[in-house]
Amino acid sequence: xxxMSRAIGxxxxxxxxxxxxxxxxxxxxxxxxxxxxxxxxxxxxQQIRQLPRHVLTGYDKGAKPVSGARQAVVRxxxxxxxxxxxxxxxxxxxxxxxxxxxxxxxVREWLRSDxxxxxxxxxxxxxxxxxAARRDAFINTAPPASVSPARLHLLRRxxxxxxxxxxxxxxxxxxxxxxxxxxxxxRPAGERVGEDRIRVQIDLDRQANRERWESVTTDTFLHAxxxxxxxxxxxxxxxLESDEGREYTSVATSALKxxxxxxxxxxxxxLASPRxxxxx
Length: 280
What we know:
This protein is mainly α. It contains 14 helices and no strands.
């Protein structure tokens, strides 16, 4: 089999990961209003709680061609490296260390405001398990093409400020990398693509998949913020684009990206270990 034709399979795996994410999240009944914590801004806490499940779901769909034993080894590596409690502690510690106290105070002040509380509750519902069906039903009745340019501009400002598309993209790439590496390890030694070529193929596909995830984010935001006026969305975007908002999202998303990078490195080490070789 030519090397390039084998590498093309990585693109298909990444597309499978994307479809897994896109139909995967949704709503759990609310437990009622409560005081949002610092990680409530921009739905960061809920994104953290969903990351491991999202990565595993994408991996499971992409790695179907290989044996269950081999998949189990990689799932264990992903589960251990993407532990939600550990990621949440890391993000909280980074915020405590790197976010200036006056900025932290401004974030808490926003979260205590009426609009801040409402948005935190909407984001919690949006990122909770089993929300996709409700979101998709809404999008089918109000597709993005029917939304005003002004509204779409506001949603893109939010996405740019929060970094949702980039987080989803990198999560999907971790799923694709794990699935492609698992499939590749099952091939005879002379037919393997190798880690470097897999990473190159994922890089080549990044822009096309970023556009896919921008679409997913737009759909998600259309549903999440449907009860907010343009003025309210604008106030939220203004806060996220303020010095304290930018500093908060910069630290939080950097910590999330570090967690995803470490997950990728853990996969590389795990798949190269003698213990994994025994399952080949």
